[in-house]
Design goal:
flat, 5 helices, mainly alpha, 126 residues
Length: 126
């Protein structure tokens, strides 16, 4: 798999919640290669990466450790929460970039009201 495919795969697996930039992926691929956890080969002008035996062992150990560290995590709900949060941030960003001063002020009010309402949920108040 080449780096761009990995970026797409991460975005897909995270439900769109995280799409890493090439600037964060490629240096990490180089680090993993330097550590002997992946190997690369050029094919058709692209650099393809694959786990080495040491990389497969490390990945399995990490998977086992993660399962012990995060038992009972509802990954589907977590994905929904991330999508909702990122969607809210995206909408707010659009208002902030393209909206008038009045629209920005309204957007800030909405965000602040939402935060307060979330805390009221914890307090079992309407």
């Amino acid at each position: 798999m080449h780096g761009y495919e990995m970026i797409q795969e991460i975005a897909e697996r995270s439900g769109g919640a995280w799409k890493p930039s090439p600037g964060s992926v490629y240096p990490n691929l180089q680090l993993l290669e330097d550590e002997g956890l992946i190997a690369s080969e050029s094919e058709g002008g692209k650099k393809l990466f694959a786990l080495t035996e040491a990389g497969r062992t490390a990945a399995e150990e990490g998977r086992t450790h993660l399962g012990k560290r995060l038992p009972g995590v509802d990954w589907e709900a977590l994905s929904e929460i991330r999508q909702a949060g990122f969607g809210l941030m995206e909408a707010f960003g659009q208002v902030w970039k393209t909206g008038s001063k009045e629209q920005r002020e309204k957007a800030l009010t909405v965000i602040n009201d939402a935060r307060k309402k979330l805390y009221l949920i914890l307090a079992d108040e309407d």
